[in-house]
Each structure stands twice: as C-alpha cells, then as structure tokens.
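Ticket #4471: structure output looks truncated?

Reporter: J.K.
Steps to reproduce: submitted the chain below (410 residues) through the standard prediction queue, then opened the result file.
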Amino acid sequence: MALKKKITASSIKGLSIDDQRINDTEVSGFHARISPKGVIKYYFFYRFNGKQRNYLLGAASSMTPAQARDLAKEKAGLVAKGIDVHFDRKEVQKAEIANNLKLGTYLEQTYLPYLISQNPKTAHKAYRNIRSSFHHLLDRNVTEITSWDIQQWIVERRKLGRSPATLTYSINRLKAALTRAVEWEIIESHQLHNIKLIREDNTRIRYLSIDEENALLGAVKQRDVLVRNKRISANLHRLERNMPLFETFENVRFVDYLEPLVITAMNTGLRRGELLGLTWKDVVLERGYLTVKAENAKSKKTRTVPLNNTVIDVLSDWKEQNPLSEYVFVSSEGKPLTDVKKPWMKLLSDAAIEDFRFHDLRHHFASKLVMAGVDLNTVRELLGHSDLKMTLRYAHLAPEHKAAAVNLIG
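Returned output as attached by the reporter:
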C-alpha cells in the first residue's frame, strides 16, 4: 500500500516491501519505490501531451532524498516549459552511445550488414576499402572524426602517389557510411561535407609510343614463358616426390587472364570496371561485338562496341579455355576479378614503362583511332562519352586534319 508523506532519510529507511512506494507531500509526482528485492529508487511522475511518464531520478544508494527532490523540482520545471524530460533522457543516452561508438565497430556491426542487404556483390569491397584506407581511424569515436583528419590523410596519400580518383573513391565510401549513421539517428552529424577534394586532371592524355606498345606486348609474352617454365619446374619437383601434379599449360594458349585482358583493353577502350564486369552473354564473337551494360558503364547507358580480329581471336581462345565461367575475365580459380593492380604494375616494370595507368590503355585506344583519321564523334560513341567535350581532348592528335581544313580556304 502506497504511503503519502515527506520523503526523508528516516521515511526511506522505514519503507517496507509491503508499502511499495512513498508519494512525497512537497513535490507533486516525486516518489520512491521499493522493489521485491528491497532496492529503493526515486522517480518523478508527470503527464505530457496526455501521456503518463515515470522518470527515473536515481537509486537511494547513490543519492539522498534531498538531492532526489531537487532533481524532481528541476524536471518539473522543464515539463512546465513544454519539455518531455523522458525523451530528453533518451537523447542523452543516444549521445552517450554515439560518443563511445568506434568507427570499426560501427562499420562491422551496423554498416556492413546494411551494405550486404543492398548489394551482396559489392558490399565487402566497399567495407574493405574503408577499413584499409582509414585503418588509423578505426579505434576513433565516430563523432570525433573531423574533416582535418581526412585532409591530412589526403596530403599523406598524395605524397605516396595516390591518384585523386582513388582518394575520392575512398572518401566518398567513408562519407556514405557516416551519412547513413546520421539518417539512422546514431549520430547527429558529421564533418566530411567540408572536405576539399582534389580534381583529377582530365586533360592528361598518356598513350603508348610504338616502342612502348611493343615493349608491353613483349613483356606479356615473356611473362607467359616464365609462368610456363615455373609450372614445368614445379611439376618435375612434385614428380620426383610422387606428389600430385599441377595442371599443365601444354594445350592452352594463355597461362591466365592477364594477356586476354590487356589485349581486349588496348583494342576496345573499355574502362577497367566495364572489362571486369563483362560476362560471356555480353560478348557475341560470331557477329564481332560486345555490349557494355548500363549497370557497368560510367555513363549508366548501354553501348555496343565492335571487336576487331585481334580481340575476336584472343577471346575465342580464352573462352575455349574457360567454357564454364560466367564472367569473361576470371582468376585461375574461376572467380570474377576485382583488381588487377599487382600484375599490371609488374608488367609495366618488366616493360620499363613509366607513368602509365591501366586506365591509360583507354587513352591509347582512342589516340590510335584519332591518329588513324577516325572522326571524333565516332570515337566518342566507342568510348561511351556522354559529352563530345571529353573526346575533344584527343583532337590535337590529328593536326594534319586541322591543316587540311585550313587549306580548303587557302
């Protein structure tokens, strides 16, 4: 049965389990409760927008009746001003959670499951990119990550030669993760909107000279010979020890995906993502063309790219080697490729070619077309440029056409 009296140290001491509670006579709504186990806590009861609320002030073991009464008065004053103190308490708890939430924990326990639910194919790639790029921030509280942290990171990465596009990709991945945290009300805001990104120099045109092209193709062939010799050596070693032999390369043209990939890139101008996203359903060798699907294209538009005899020959043999694979370019285990940076860099080193990205094979393709007299609009269509301005970067490679145009009025 509830008692009604002033809550004091003596009245609290005399409170029994049968009494259940004491309603204070001085402050309306202030009361003390005793649990079946004998634990006493102070509460403040109030109504807000027609709903009953019971706000926990604290335990009798950690505060005096006078302290609890003063806190009840404070909360009563807030309610009188139209503030729901129960909701305010939730906001405090939410802030406490946010202030103690590590980036690594948030990514693993909250953001990764969300990414998987949206797109299982790309989820882990985005997750790994954030973790590897910002590993120094994984133990930092999410609310403490500042734009200055990222700006410093940009400076250090640029010193290591990372391209603006690579840095922008990683920053956008982290920004997307934190923006979701705001949308889910895990944190109130983040500071990454203020980051100044470095613009890529889109005027840069790097293509291979005749000597460099020959060196690159020569390095591809030399790599083929080395891989085959290593396989022969490994099998001789295993044969001497009665171990199962590795599959030989005796009856196949290619030792792996790299040569078909490089040849196709040089002769189609496809972007890396477009190449790695190609499936055999997209390639019609009999009619000599392939289709870049909108989902893999930067412009988000489907386009058809004709294949020359070199590519048809290479892809025909490569398909014969991998009759069961869905994707065109797969690893030796038959899995779709996600990155080719390591073998590509080794290839450039072997060919003694400097300052040449895999993406520059696309520039090489376009440059050769323009220098062969192909008009810029056709080049634009083949590259999948949405705007002719992008293709005009190659115009200077056909100076004889400019001279011919001027001579028409001379």
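Triage note (M.O.): checked the attachment and the full token line is present. The mean pLDDT is 87.
Status: closed, working as intended.
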